[in-house]
Amino acid sequence: MPWYAFLLAPFALIFLGITTARNFLYDRGWLKSIRSPIPTIVVGNLSVGGTGKTPMVEFLVNAFRKEKKLATLSRGYGRKSTGFFQANPESTPEQIGDEPLQIYSKFEGKIPVFVGEDRVVSLQKIHNLNPELDWVILDDAYQHRKLKADFYILLTPYSKPFSSDWILPMGRLREARLGAKRADLVVVTKCPDSLSDLQKKQVESGIKPYLGSNVPVFFSGLNYGKPYPFHLSEPFSGKVILVSGLADPSLFESYCKRTFQVLDSFSFPDHHDYEEKDLGKIVSAWTNLRKENPVILCTEKDAGKLKVLANEGKFGEIPIFALPMEVKLESQEKEMLLAQIRQKLGNQ
Q1: Is 76 within 8 Å of 100 (Cβ atoms)?
Q2: CA dist 335 → 170, 237, 341 (Å)
Q3: Domain count of the fold of the chain
Q4: Of 82, 196, 248, 333, which has the maximum CB count within 10 A?
């Protein structure tokens, strides 16, 4: 926490009071939570961004799509549109948001992907359109108390677990740590590969006091795949200019620096809308390094936006690659996590 954070304490207390009062009204039933006509799994967090919700949604889709008919629903953060939409081959980040487009592209349209601000209304519309669906997985709806979901997965990053964070604006928490009691399980995300049992116990001991009884805590990392091109079919040179718009680009950048020859790097805010000046900087860097035969390497989250710009001719002859990533759990923990969901949802 920066030294000036305590100067923000009065504002944090106001925000804490508002969110606590809201949760109290929902917990007592004075504000009504509504169940979906389709069983729902919520993937969310207590903090603002950077916990790996979208990779976890993709992990769940991969794990269950052979046994269940699935769809995903998110708010579509950062999109320019409002209302309810289903992703299709012509969808853009401006219409549905970068993360829903990433999910739609990754699964090649084989599962329905929806966006809508009001999750309750959106779920009813999804049910009307696809009554055969078994489950809907919601990306970032932990604070959407109007919906009473069937299963809550709470994510928290290893580098800054919610148990050591503070309420906005002193820290990054959207609500008090006690909000974790709504979780059916917790996943500590973005863990280092060398995480020891002792380190796990230390993190778990800080989290457990805020959870309900017998709520399990799991630990996950990230696996990176082979970069693939989406603008120009040039070979991957291994010499890269990094471009990312992430809440926390540190893991992406550190992996790339270990694995490739990073010639330059551009980091933008989460869900960044790329402007002409941004493109100018990237193109200028590539031009200056052209003799090195570099490629632009970005996250799959940014690929949708950069692909639109590439199709508009903004990048000309510059090859652009995306680096895929996926959630990694130890096999035993993976099976235990999936078993928790199957047991809670049963034959729904």
Answers
A1: yes
A2: 37, 38, 10
A3: 2
A4: 248
For 33-42, 82-91, 169-178, 271-280, which range has the lowest pLDDT when averaged over its residues?
Answer: 271-280
pLDDT single digits (tens) 308-344: 888 788 888 889 999 999 999 999 999 999 999 999 9
Exposure string (b/e) for 295-319, b if CB count within 10 Å is 16 or more? Answer: bbbbbbbbbbbbbebbeeebbeebb
The answer on 211 and 234 residing in a single domain is no
CA distance linking residue 41 with residue 225, whole number of Å? 26
Identify the CATH number of the domain in which residue 319 sits: 3.40.50
* Per-residue pLDDT reduced to its tens digit, 266-302: 999 988 888 888 989 999 999 999 999 999 999 999 9
Based on the domain organization, do 126 and 68 belong to the same domain?
yes
Tell me, yes or no, whether 146 and 279 share the same domain: no
161 and 277 housed in the same domain: no
Short-list 52, 106, 44, 48, CA closest to 220: 52
Q: What is the pTM of this model?
A: 0.94
Distance between CA atoms of 261 and 264, rounded to whole angstroms? 9
- Asked if 196 and 64 sit in the same domain, the reply is yes
Number of C-beta neighbours around residue 132 at 10 A: 7
Q: Please state, in angstroms and rounded to a whole number, the distance separating the CA atoms of residues 110 and 254.
A: 33
Contacts (Cβ under 8 Å, ≥6 apart) of 23: 145, 175, 176, 179
* Local confidence band at 1 (pLDDT 50, 70, 90 cut-offs): low
Q: Which two tokens stand for residue 337?
A: 């996590």
Q: Is the peptide bond before 169 cis (omega within 30 degrees of 0)?
A: yes
Q: Where residue 109 falls among pLDDT bands split at 50, 70, 90?
A: confident
Domain encompassing residue 241: 226-323
Rg (CA), the chain: 21
